[in-house]
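Internal tracking record. Fields below are filled automatically when a chain is submitted to the structure queue. Please do not edit lines marked as system-generated. If the sequence contains nonstandard residues, flag them in the REMARKS field before resubmitting.
Queue: standard
Priority: normal
Entity type: single polypeptide chain
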Amino acid sequence: MAWGEHGAWIAGAEQGAFYQQLLDDAESAPARNAERKKIVKPDEMPWEMSRQGLLKHLINEDMNTRMETVDAYLQIIPPGSRSGKHRHLAEECLYVVEGHGYDLHQDCDVEITDTYHWKPQEEVQRFDWEAGDVIYVPPNTIHQHFNADPERPVRLISAINRIFKHSGLNDLEQLEDAPEYDPSVTLDAQTVHRYLRAPAGSST
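SYSTEM-GENERATED OUTPUT FOLLOWS
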């Protein structure tokens, strides 16, 4: 043999049909996708009372839509409130649908060897935003969203690429919960309306 490892590579009797599974998956994809949603109606978008805040999921891997690469949710921040604080390895962009406020971002120094370590840098940066803006959150940046209006809510649409999760890089850590977080609360339209109301004594 040309190489001396002949005795090693030829050993074994395990069988696999992994390539055939790829072919079968590709062949069945059109019929499978035909059953998946291309249009998602508002009443089909799940609410979640999450540690990050009040979320309505627009697109998620578990929602059986045609979207293969991106997860997106609508986040509502009540008047004068804030989101939770977290960091994740995936970069994120958010579109400001309604309201105005600011983000606090804190970059982290990262070391990836056999294990993964991160350490916050001392500098915390503030970025002000308003309706129509897009907020960019770099990878592994600690961040939090603040509603600067004491009378009106903020609505943000967040989008993150699923490739990080499917590449084994689903590094997500919650550092602070949103003030509204209460796992005993079930969100629906009526409940969310209560969170949207301006504080007592305001003009709205």
